[in-house]
Model the fold of this input.
Amino acid sequence: MTTDAQESPYFVTYDHYLEEPGSLEVGSFSNFSTQRRGGDFVAYWLELEYGATAWWTTELYLDGQSTFPDSTIFTGFRLENRFRLLQSEHLINPVLYLEYEQISEADKIMKEVEGHDVEADHATPNAVLRQGHNHELEFKLLLSTTRNGWNFALNPLATKPLTGGDPWEFGYAAGVSRPLALKASPRRCRLCRENFIAGVEIYGGLGDRHSFGFDETSHYLAPVIGWNLPSSWTLRLSPGIGLNDNSHQFLLRWGVSREFSGFGSTVSSWFRGRR
Amino acid sequence: MIRSATTQAAALLGAAVLVIGIAMAQSSDSTQAKFDKAAYAELSKVPAKAAVRLNPLESDSEAVAAGAKLFRRHCAECHGADAEGGKKAPSLRAEEVQQATPGTLFWLITNGVVRKGMPVWSRLPEPERWQLVSYVKSLRSSARQPNQ
Done:
């Protein structure tokens, strides 16, 4: 059985809504980016998001990228968990985000921008970049509220590399979004305004423990739009621009995802047998 | 070699997280497989100020039909296609629900019952949550016609 989940349109920012318990969302996302002094690239990631409980969502990401005219490579994986801290809705709703990632330096999905990440990091050929590895823990505090249909979300983040003695790195993401209509129409429809959610997000790095601030950091502004189809599919699109000279000049993100409700029950029944 | 071992450990950790997650979800399912009067206790915990709110779409002729559509999309998986309850959630045709005020139902939809597995639904715009309330309250008149 499937349901529509009214997914958020964000690519980088998280709101405080978790996956419904027992549901699995499978998504495929891409990020095209222009690159000065190097080849343009498309990075992509497969996302498996599972609602373990109403207060805990766990996710697995598999990342890859194609740099033109260089090569296509797998760049690593991430394990992510989000924990809702408060039982009911409040003015601001905090969610704790913990991520373990093991990716190569060739990873270019830019799911988060942190520390002193800059465009020049991606100009090196894949053969060289893939020699370096990032093995780190990432913490985010997801702060989000929804008022009168508007969602406001702010995600400060901190990352700790687990190897090499590198310092803590910091970053942020923030977003605002709203459905194009606040009332549902009584008929089943694909193109109703209620199925579209539009917004904008901004994200970037804030340096590290030794050099906190905006120096040598990159920042992006990106309108976002999501289309929740009645058939449980969600399409997302987001053109983005770099806000300073350290940023890629242009990003285009797109993604498609589908929600499978009752996934947990189905898997469980395989092991339980018929009752 | 060290990286390979780390990768294997991480993969095992990931698998463990997934299995534990599914187990927790199923544990939650099984503990709620049977519903009795206690399942409706949350209705009495709604703040009085919220419970007295009136449904602004009470006289909206399309609210019930729109609410039915939203119910099929977001709620039927747990509460059952006819709102008669499922493995995960209780019937909404029960007397306890039908006698609850619109404000009570709106508050519960908005805030969920997170510790018992019902997610918050404040991501739905407020008018859509009221449309859901309209639909749930409309079940009173069809409570004896389960196939409707």
